Amino acid sequence: MKLADLRKLSIRKNLKIRFRLSNGLECVVTEQGIAQVPGLNRTADFNIEQELASAAQFILEPVGGDPKHSSPPRSIGREELTSLTAASTGGAAAGHEDED
To answer: What b/e readout covers 23-57, taking b as 16+ CB neighbours within 10 angstroms?
Structure first.
């Protein structure tokens, strides 16, 4: 699973995806697919792709929709997120094949 996979998933599912970095900060992949590290006010001395490779827990936070019926954020492990990214990518590829 790569950062590009998380970016695609966050855009397709309208999610914010959060995971902890080894330095204690948190990376947030926004619903626009942008990876951000809130609180980082200097040049990063780490590689987000490498940090993602070592992350074990992720928080999925639905964005938008009806505030009265919104889903709460949920914590998932690496295996479940990997299967979500694979399903999201596979579904998109299948959809493109039908259009040809």
So the answer is: eeeebbbbbebebebeeeeeeeeeebeebbeebee
| Enclosing domain of residue 29 | 3-99
User: Do 81 and 58 meet the contact criterion of CB atoms below 8 Å apart?
Assistant: yes
Please state the pTM of the whole predicted model.
0.80
Give dist(CA 40, CA 24) in Å, integer.
11
Per the structure, how many domains does the chain have?
1
**Residue 95 to residue 76: CA distance in whole angstroms:** 27
Whether the per-residue pLDDT at 19 is higher than 90: the answer is: yes
Rounded-to-integer distance, Cα 86 and Cα 91, Å: 8
Residues 26, 39: Cα–Cα separation, whole Å: 9
